[in-house]
Amino acid sequence: MWFFFSGVLMGIANVVPGVSGGTIAVLMGIYEKLIESVNSFFHGNSKSLKVLIPVGTGVLVGIFGIARFLEISLSKYPIPTHFFFLGLVIVSFVKTKEYFSIKPVNIFFVLLGMFLIFMLHFSGGTTAKENMFLLVLAGFVAAMAMVVPGISGSLILLIFGVYDYVLYLVSHLIIGELLIFSIGVVAGILVSVKIMNFLLKRFREETYSFIGGMILASLYEVLPKKMNTNVVLPSILSFVLSLTLGFVLLRIEKKLSVTQKL
Q1: Can you spell out the DSSP letters for the chain?
Q2: What are the residues whose beta carbons fall under 8 Å from the beta carbon of 205, sequence distance 6 or more?
Q3: How far is it, in rounded angstroms, from Cα 64 to Cα 170?
Q4: Torsion-angle region of residue 127: left (phi > 0), alpha (psi -120 to 50) or beta?
């Protein structure tokens, strides 16, 4: 039951940009067990399904349970909702910055990450609806990001500019496009554990620097381009609320990590 409940919280977290499903797994005390189970499953160990099935079911329940709510929020209150996301993205960068120091090689990878995202953003303006390869690629990278605590899969979808579209697909159960998106997600999960483990063990700071650069560049994607005077106050309140929520989560995670070390 605990694995299922943890999966529900992870699913909800994975829908909200800036909130990491991996971080929730750490907070719930199942992260290492989950990674071990994924590795065991790919090596033919069926016992890992005792963990993967309840967690996976919970993730699906969390995702489909909150997707419609967020879609309504984006359609009726787009500017305050994006300011809420903006606060979470800022907190996500603060979290990522804990994993790398300021030195020339890391600054280079931050700039490289920013360059990649801006290049994607200004490369022609095609949408996921017009570019199915972009949808598959976004799903692949988002699935890889979900393995790393502190990195939000939905934030990756925002970076690629497909978040709203994927949210629409999920909330309205558009099966055809969801299957195309799922190709990228499944492929990302298949390779992410080994690749991310390799990168984080061999090039930990450089990897997080690159991710941090992508997160910084995504602020441009999340920031509303137009503002109406009647939504200024709700937007400020939404932004402050998301910052507060994000930093509270960071404090909880730090306290739990210290407790686990003791």
Answers
A1: -HHHHHHHHHHHHHHSTT--HHHHHHHTT-HHHHHHHHHHHHTT-GGGHHHHHHHHHHHHHHHHHHHHHHHHHHHHSHHHHHHHHHHHHHHHHHHHHTT---SHHHHHHHHHHHHHHHHHHTS----TTT-HHHHHHHHHHHHHHTTSTT--HHHHHHHTT-HHHHHHHHHTT-HHHHHHHHHHHHHHHHHHHHHHHHHHHHSHHHHHHHHHHHHHHHHHHHS-S---GGGHHHHHHHHHHHHHHHHHHHHHHHHHHHHHH-
A2: 99, 100, 101, 105, 106
A3: 7
A4: beta
Name the nearest CA neighbour of 109 among 256, 216, 258: 216
CA–CA distance, 32 with 25 (Å, rounded to integer): 9
Q: Which amino acid type is present at position 137?
A: L
CA distances from 161 to 36, 98, 106, 217, 233 (A): 32, 26, 25, 12, 26
Q: Give pLDDT tens digits for 57-105.
A: 998 888 888 877 877 887 888 899 889 888 888 887 888 888 899 999 9
The pLDDT tens digits for 124-157 are 444 555 567 888 888 888 887 777 666 677 878 8
pTM: 0.71
